[in-house]
């Protein structure tokens, strides 16, 4: 790659939305109903179904998950327990509540057994909820950019669909073995592009929406001057996982794991220059598979042209837009416990939550509508795992005493975190899982069900 001219390329054969490396941007407003017509045009399944739900299977069977939306998990809404085979169609109808937080969300395939293969092929897209924060003058004036980060770990293999030919495909979970991505020398793509160039004017403020739609590595996003890597453009974080924090948290780097979204404001220096958006090296304990990750350049940011005078948003104005109220000790009504573990004593390893692999027929963890609970989530000493739960976001206390609301949180090896959540508005079955998606497909997932208060699921029950 040299100044935007492509020297080499691979022709790939991947599962995708509408034929692209990243799906279309979907925009909704609170109170809207989102209609998505899903047409599965993937080829027929080459292999018969498997009796074990936790082995990779059903690569051409799919569905849709609106990651982070506070919507119903039932019926034809955000129901990941539905699945559609080749040549089947389905109409999703997702009612976005009138008080839904405005922010950055995303959508992706979520059929257990094939989530990692479909997401890492590019079956992901940005889902933006427009609303109050978009109307703040300093944000409205800022150019908005959406960054969907993806890692696409294809390999040249014998094409199972056209015998006797080879193609660049993802048809096996071998590509997810730790170190394979690092050894491949491939890079994280932004909106399906390799090292794109973005432009800013001197003094300009832009709003960037970061979405980690990838599967293969942790991202530590940093903007450094190309001529001097010690000179950093600050990032001012205003939202996490779609939820406005009410603050302008100024950081030198933004750490992201699969499933995370972070909204930042950036303000260019007054002098023209070129910056690099880099993914800083990650030590093993903050890397995705417990193996160190090297530093990589992801994009160029060229500051040039006529200088402008623009200001960052005002913290007081942001504080007025915080959509969720903090959960106090006295509100808590119970505790839930989640332990992520990998059993390496068997081959292949078993991926477990609270000692058990995912069982679609096991009774779900019962959560009672209206209750407020603390979740204690831990990872075993093998490696860390990003905890993700559908429907209701959770509150995280940060080490600096501030809190943020999220729906996905990395819990490091041998670490334990306390999260707080309210079960609001919706009943039904959904899932909680590790967002290293091959771990989820291999069993690191658990069924949940929110039930009405009078249905016999109440009380201070502890689940182990």
From TrEMBL:
Organism per entry: Archangium minus
Entries under InterPro entries matching the protein: Cu-oxidase-like_N, Cu-oxidase_C, Cu-oxidase_fam, Cu_oxidase_Cu_BS, Cupredoxin
Keywords associated with the record: Metal-binding, Oxidoreductase
UniProt protein name: Multicopper oxidase domain-containing protein
Gene3D superfamilies referenced in this protein's UniProt entry, alphabetically: Cupredoxins - blue copper proteins
Keyword Metal-binding recorded: yes
Domain annotation Plastocyanin-like: ranges: 62-131, 336-445
Xref: SUPFAM superfamilies: Cupredoxins
Keyword Oxidoreductase in annotation: yes
């Amino acid at each position: 790659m040299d100044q935007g001219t492509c020297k080499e390329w691979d022709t790939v054969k991947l599962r995708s939305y509408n034929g692209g490396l990243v799906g279309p941007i979907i925009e909704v407003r609170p109170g809207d109903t989102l209609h998505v017509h899903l047409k599965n045009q993937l080829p027929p399944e080459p292999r018969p179904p498997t009796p074990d739900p936790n082995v990779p299977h059903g690569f051409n069977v799919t569905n849709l998950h609106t990651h982070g939306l506070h919507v119903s998990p039932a019926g034809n809404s955000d129901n990941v327990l539905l699945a559609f085979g080749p040549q089947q169609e389905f109409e999703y109808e997702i009612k976005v509540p009138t008080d839904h937080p405005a922010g950055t969300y995303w959508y992706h395939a979520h059929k257990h057994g094939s989530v990692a293969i479909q997401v890492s092929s590019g079956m992901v897209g940005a889902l933006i909820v427009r609303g109050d924060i978009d109307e703040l003058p300093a944000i409205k004036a800022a150019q908005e950019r959406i960054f969907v980060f993806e890692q696409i770990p294809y390999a040249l293999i014998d094409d199972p669909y056209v015998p006797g030919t080879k193609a660049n495909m993802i048809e096996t979970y071998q590509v997810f073995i730790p170190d394979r991505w690092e050894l491949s020398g491939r890079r994280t793509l932004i909106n399906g592009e390799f090292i794109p160039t973005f432009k800013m004017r001197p003094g300009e403020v832009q709003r960037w929406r970061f979405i980690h739609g990838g599967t293969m590595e942790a991202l530590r996003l940093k903007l450094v001057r190309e001529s001097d890597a010690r000179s950093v453009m600050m990032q001012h974080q205003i939202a996490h996982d779609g939820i406005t924090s009410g603050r302008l948290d100024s950081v030198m780097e933004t750490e992201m794991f699969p499933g995370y979204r972070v909204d930042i404001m950036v303000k260019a220096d007054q002098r023209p220059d070129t910056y690099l958006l880099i993914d800083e090296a990650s030590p093993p304990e903050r890397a995705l598979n417990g193996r160190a990750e090297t530093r990589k350049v992801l994009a160029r940011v060229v500051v040039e042209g006529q200088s402008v005078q623009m200001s960052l948003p005002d913290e007081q104005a942001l504080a007025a837009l915080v959509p969720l109220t903090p959960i106090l000790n006295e509100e808590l009504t119970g505790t839930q416990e989640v332990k992520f573990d990998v059993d390496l004593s068997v081959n292949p390893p078993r991926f477990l939550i609270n000692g058990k692999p995912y069982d679609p027929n096991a009774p779900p963890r019962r959560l009672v509508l209206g209750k407020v609970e603390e979740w204690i989530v831990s990872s075993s000493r093998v490696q860390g795992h990003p905890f993700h739960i559908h429907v209701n976001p959770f509150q995280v206390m940060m080490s600096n005493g501030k809190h943020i609301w999220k729906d996905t949180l990395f819990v490091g090896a041998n670490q334990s975190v306390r999260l707080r959540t309210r079960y609001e508005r919706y009943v039904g079955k959904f899932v909680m899982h590790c967002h290293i998606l091959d771990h989820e497909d291999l069993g690191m997932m658990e069924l949940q069900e929110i039930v009405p208060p009078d249905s016999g699921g109440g009380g201070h029950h502890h689940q182990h």
